[in-house]
C-alpha cells in the first residue's frame, strides 16, 4: 500500500513535469520552432486533424517556417486554421507552400512571454504540491484504518520520501523555467 502511494505520487509528478515541457514548446521564442504549431487543428474533410498530419512542416532558417500540404487543396484550410489560432503569425501563401515569418521579438514582448512562462511554471509547482498533499492525506487516512498495521515511524519516513520527491520535481521545474527564460531573452 505504502509503496503504491509513493509510486503513484512520482508518476503523477512526472506527468505534471511533462505537461510543463509541452506547454513550454508552444511558447514563442525569437527563433522559428515547429512546437508553435502543435495545437493547430485543420478541418480535413470535416474532421479536425492536427496540422502535422496533413502537411510537411520545416524550418528552413531561424526566422521562417514552411508548411507544404500533401494535398494542394488543403492550403486554404491550413491558412484559416493558422489565422484562427492565437499564435500571432500571419501566413503567406504562394500556391504551393505556406510560409510563416517569425518577426523579431521586442524587449516588451519577451518580458510578456517570460511572465507567461513563469505562470506556467508556478501552475506546475502548485500541481506537484497538490499531488503531495493528496498522497499525504491518503496515507493518513489508510493509516487510521483499523486493519492498517503501519507504525508512525513508517508514515513519517514515507512522508519524508514524498517531500524529497516533491522538492526534486520542483527543482526540475525551476531548471526548465531558467532554461526557457534564457532561451526567450536571447536576442
Terminal CA distance reads: 51 Å
Helix content: 55-70%
CATH homologous superfamily classification of the largest domain: Ribosome-recycling factor
* SSE arrangement, N to C: HEEEEHEEHH
Instruction: Return the CATH architecture of the largest domain.
Output: Orthogonal Bundle
- What's the number of helices? 4
Q: What structural class should be given to the helix and strand makeup?
A: alpha+beta
Overall strand count:
6
Shape: elongated
Q: Which sequence of strands runs across the widest sheet? A: 3-4-6-5
**How many domains, as an integer?**
2
Q: Could you please describe the fold and organization of this structure?
A:
The longest helix is centred in the C-terminal third of the chain and has 38 residues, at 107-144. Strand 1 and strand 2 form a beta hairpin. The chain has helices at residues 2-26, 75-84, 107-144, 152-185, and strands at residues 41-44, 47-50, 55-61, 64-69, 91-93, 98-101. The protein has four helices and six strands; from the N terminus they run αββββαββαα. The chain has two domains: 2-26 and 106-185, Ribosome-recycling factor (Topoisomerase I, Chain A, domain 4); 34-101, Gyrase A, domain 2 (2-Layer Sandwich), CATH 3.30.1360.40. The model has no long low-confidence stretch (mean pLDDT 85). By secondary structure, the protein is an alpha+beta fold. The chain has a four-stranded antiparallel beta sheet with strand order 3-4-6-5, covered by helices on one side.
